[in-house]
């Protein structure tokens, strides 16, 4: 089945396009360029009407917080995106993405790829997906080689590298190789949308791993 024959997925991608087209870059030329590259890649993909290859839906413990995350987004700036996500929620494959993951984190975190090499919407030049965190989660330090990443906050309060607290609607850019660590507030879950840009071979095999702690002394 192609994208145009599945309205729920088409509308979802249009909502992502809206986020990257209408939001502010806050005066940053670097962020403005990233937003442009994401929406240009996404527009090409939509115009090419790619195949949708449904994957087997899969859930993980943190998905118990998904409903609350969607409810919180209902009154926020990305309510339309959250509604579009909810429409396809029964078709989502939630994953950890790491061959080894701490036991406590396995209960507090999951991500899903909505568009990319693994689908369901097939593309090789862009990945779009979601990350869900339970309350009071610390997502360890990591980076992405040859991948430029942006997070867009859909619901919940979170911080990256203890620099600021980000509210729904915020966009945070991580350049290739940038080390970052995420913490989430203690009362509610956090739902982030994300986009990855990079070489097709890297997006197909991102080799996700946490950074080794720096040696002391």
Automatic annotation (TrEMBL):
Q: Does the keyword Lyase apply?
A: yes
Q: What is this protein called?
A: Dimethylsulfoniopropionate lyase
- InterPro entries for the chain: DMSP_lyase, RmlC-like_jellyroll, RmlC_Cupin_sf
Q: Give the species.
A: Aurantimonas marianensis
Sorted alphabetically, the keyword list is:
Lyase
Query: GO terms for molecular function, please?
Result: dimethylpropiothetin dethiomethylase activity
Statement: the UniProt record of this protein carries the keyword tRNA processing: no
